[in-house]
Design goal:
Elements lengths: L55 H5 L11 H16 L6 H7 L3 E2 L9 E10 L3 E11 L3 E11 L17 E5 L7 E6 L5 E8 L2 E12 L2
Antiparallel strand pairs: 1-2, 2-3, 3-4, 4-8, 5-6, 6-7, 7-8
Helix pairs in contact: 2-3
Length: 216
């Protein structure tokens, strides 16, 4: 009887969920069988239920994790300046100033010869993605500028009263209920800029109306 020189048992990867493979050596002097007849016993383990290294916050994104919170007065000053650039001059060249200040414009749709529109967004620390929509409307004898800013402020970081005194604005804020909702309205000394704003259920809306006078 032919003597077996060696029988080896190799267990590969038993500590991991990949493969467990058993291989046997042949008797001495034997001719190896074709590759197609080799013995390959493997076990595959489904790892789909294993915990992921990616947290839910990483997967879903954190709307308000765009850096340290910007101070209320600084954020409002930025929004006011951007809206004034976009809609306060009656000249669409102001759109370029907003883009240079970090706003990322959307693809603008043709709004016809009497309305020019600028739509954009920007990440602002503490508030996540802020959206801005502005327009310049040209009437037969008058020009009207309008700009609106929307963003989430669920941590109540914004103090809308900080708009008071900004470029001469006068006005008041009020909290008519116990929900934390805030409402305010302001106007410039020459009555050509009217501002209305609110924080309702954590969402802030600020609207700037620019009465630009006679058509240019």
């Amino acid at each position: 009887m032919t003597k077996l020189h060696l029988v080896s048992l190799c267990l590969i990867g038993l500590s991991t969920p990949a493969l467990a493979q058993i291989s046997l050596t042949l008797p001495s002097g034997s001719t190896p069988p074709p590759a197609s007849s080799s013995v390959d016993m493997s076990i595959e383990v489904d790892t789909s239920d294993e915990p992921s290294d990616v947290s839910a916050d990483d997967q879903n994104g954190d709307d308000q994790a765009a850096g340290p919170p910007v101070a209320s007065k600084d954020a409002l000053a930025d929004f006011y300046k951007s809206c004034k650039d976009v809609s306060g001059s009656g000249d669409a060249k102001g759109f370029d100033l907003a883009t240079a200040a970090g706003w990322v414009p959307d693809d603008a749709a043709d709004s016809g010869p009497y309305r020019k529109v600028y739509s954009a967004s920007k990440d602002v620390g503490g508030y996540g993605s802020v959206t801005l929509w502005g327009s310049i409307d040209t009437y037969p004898t008058q020009t009207l500028g309008y700009c609106r800013v929307d963003f989430g402020d669920y941590d109540t970081l914004i103090n809308l009263a900080d708009l008071t005194g900004m470029d001469g604005l006068t006005g008041t804020t009020t909290t008519p209920d116990n929900t934390g909702n805030v409402y305010g309205a302001w106007e410039s000394a020459d009555k050509t800029m009217l501002v209305i704003a609110d924080r309702t259920d954590g969402q802030v809306e600020i609207e700037f109306n620019f009465l630009l006078g006679a058509k240019k």
